[in-house]
Amino acid sequence: MPNKAILCVDDERIILTSLRDQITRNFGSEYQCELAESADEALEVIEELDEEGIAIILIVSDWLMPQMKGDEFLIKVHEQYPHVVTVLLTGQADEEAVERTRQYANLHSYLPKPWDETTLVEVLKSGLEKIDE
Question: How far apart (Å, rounded) are the C-alpha atoms in residues 33 and 5?
Fold first, then answer.
């Protein structure tokens, strides 16, 4: 089992299922794909994987979620894990939130919903290349 993971965070199960299927199809042999339905659940997943020696290297997060918005979540993660590549995937984010995420969470890319698999794969590949540099 790979010791590196891509984490997808969205409060809609159908979005998570689509992301998991596309990521597994394109990166399944190299990276685990983990899912979380909220920012709080995602923080727990990150902690559990960290304890197991599995590194979260890339996070794809929705912006509009209950309790904690995606930009707040990615900023929080970046403070503790500055090496994690972040992608904001949403149909709802305002420009201020995207810019805040760029400044404070080292945002790699912003993908609007709906997305297509080719674009997602290109964004993830370019983000993963940043890690290998």
Answer: 6
